[in-house]
């Protein structure tokens, strides 16, 4: 089962990289919806990453890795036509990561979560 989560994590990672670094035409920004998408995307990225690695790995280490990935993408967007570096995007990404970390104690109560983390 872990291999499926690893494939899903890798797919989401590369898809987010592709979508984030593809040049776009300037449009009117949709701040709220865009930030919500960022937060949800990084929540899902953390979830798949959590199931992709050994259960003994620290959630803090995982969060730091995903956050640094987020910062690297934002930095790289500064070199892509039609894109720019946004601290608000980084904050939204961090919110998704933190939201997942806050949900972990709740998820641990469920047998399905514990079973998937062991395999």
Structural class: mainly alpha
Number of beta strands: 0
Domains (count):
1
Assess the beta-strand content as a share of residues.
under 5%
What is the average of the pLDDT values? 87
Helix content: over 70%
Tell me, briefly, the overall form: elongated
The number of helical segments is 5
> What composes the largest sheet?
none
Can you tell me the residue ranges where pLDDT is under 50 for at least 5 consecutive residues? none
- How far do the termini sit from each other? 7 Å
Order of helices and strands: HHHHH
How large is the radius of gyration? Answer: 15 Å
Description:
By secondary structure, the chain is mainly α. It has one domain. It contains five helices and no strands. It has helices spanning 2-20, 31-52, 59-77, 87-107, 111-118. The mean pLDDT is 87.
Which features does this protein show?
elongated, 5 helices, 119 residues
How does the SSE layout of this entry go?
Layout: H1 2-20, H2 31-52, H3 59-77, H4 87-107, H5 111-118
Helix pairs in contact: 1-2, 2-3, 2-4, 3-4
Concise summary:
By secondary structure, the chain is mainly α. The protein has helices spanning 2-20, 31-52, 59-77, 87-107, 111-118. It is elongated.
């Amino acid at each position: 089962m872990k291999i499926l989560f690893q494939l899903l994590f890798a797919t989401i990672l590369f898809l987010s990289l592709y979508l984030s670094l593809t040049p776009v035409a300037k449009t009117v920004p949709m701040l709220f919806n865009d930030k919500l998408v960022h937060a949800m995307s990084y929540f899902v990225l953390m979830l798949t990453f959590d199931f992709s690695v050994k259960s003994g790995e620290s959630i803090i280490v995982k969060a730091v890795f995903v956050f640094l990935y987020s910062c690297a993408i934002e930095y790289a967007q500064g070199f892509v036509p039609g894109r720019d570096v946004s601290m608000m995007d980084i904050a939204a990404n961090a919110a998704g990561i933190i939201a997942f970390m806050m949900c972990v104690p709740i998820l641990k109560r469920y047998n399905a979560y514990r079973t998937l983390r062991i395999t």
